[in-house]
């Protein structure tokens, strides 16, 4: 499971960073309608992954 979680976390990170590069509102922390769900997915998976690391 950890490998799958890490993979999903990295994909979400890549998607968020790619979107953020070309989106002025997202660069200024005012997420656009397309960026908000990308950021939420990234942040949620990051929290899950870090929680997993702490419980090891």
Quickly describe the structure.
With 56 residues, the protein is mainly alpha-helical.
Description of the structure:
By secondary structure, this protein is an all-alpha fold. It is built from 3 helices and no strands. The protein has helices spanning 2-21, 24-27, 35-54. It is elongated. It starts with a helix and ends with a helix.
Task: List unreliable stretches of 5+ residues.
Answer: none
Radius of gyration: 12 Å
What share of the residues does DSSP label as strand, in percent?
Answer: under 5%
Number of strands: 0
Number of helical stretches of at least 4 residues? 3
Q: Quote the average pLDDT.
A: 94
Shape: elongated
The major beta sheet can be summarized as: none
Reading the helices and strands in chain order gives: HHH
């Amino acid at each position: 499971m950890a490998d799958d979680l890490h993979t999903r976390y990295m994909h979400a990170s890549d998607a968020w960073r790619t979107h953020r590069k070309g989106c002025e509102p997202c660069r200024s922390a005012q997420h656009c309608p397309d960026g908000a769900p990308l950021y939420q997915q990234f942040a949620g998976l990051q929290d899950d992954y870090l929680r997993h690391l702490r419980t090891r």
